[in-house]
Amino acid sequence: MSHRRARRPLLELAAALVLAGCATSPPSRLHLLAVEPLGPLPGAERRPPRVLGLGPLEVVDYLERPEIVGRRGRTSLVLAEFDRWGERFEVMFGRVLRESLARLLATDDVIELPSDREVQPDWRIAVQLLRFEAQDGREVELEARWSLFGGNGDRPVRLERTVLREPVEPGPGMEPVVAAMSRALGALARTLAEAISAEERARPARRLSPGRPSGR
Q: What percent of the chain has pLDDT above 70?
C-alpha cells in the first residue's frame, strides 16, 4: 500500500508535465503547394488529344520530410518546426505538376508513371528535383534536371537543367514562402509544356528528309 501511495504523486507530476508541455507548444500549421491559375499555351486547344506521362519523379532526400525546409547561407538548412506540409512532399509535388501540365497543354490525360493503365503516352517527362527551398527567407530557388521522351523512345529528345527563382513577398508566417514555391513550380510546368509544344511544332519538319520538297 505504501508503494502505491508513493508512486501516485510521481504519476500525477508526470501527467502535469505532459499537460504543461502540450499547453505551451503551439500547434503545427499545415501547408500545401497550390496550382497556379495557368491558361493553355497558344494553340494547345487546337491540337489533337494527347497523353502525357510524368515519371519517374525523383526528389532530393533532404526535402522528403514533414517540415518545410529553408536554406541559410550556402550550406546550412533550416527546418520550420511548426510549419509542415499537409501531405508527403513528393506526392504533393507530382500532383501539382501534373495538374499544371494538364492546364497548360489543354489535356485531361496526364498520368503518373509507372502506371497500371494500358496506355502509351505520346510524351514522357522524367524529373529530378535537385533543390527547392527559400534562400534566407528572401527568394525561392528551384533547380531540376529533366528529360523529355517521345512515344516509345528510350532516348530523350531533350535533356536539360532548369533553375528558377521567385522572390518571397513580404508578409507574416510561412504563407509568402509557400506562395513563392507554388509560383516557381508553375514556372517549371510552363517550361516543360513549352518544350513539348516546341517538339510538336518541329515534328512535321523532321519527317522530311534532307533535300526533299515539302510538296508545295
A: 82
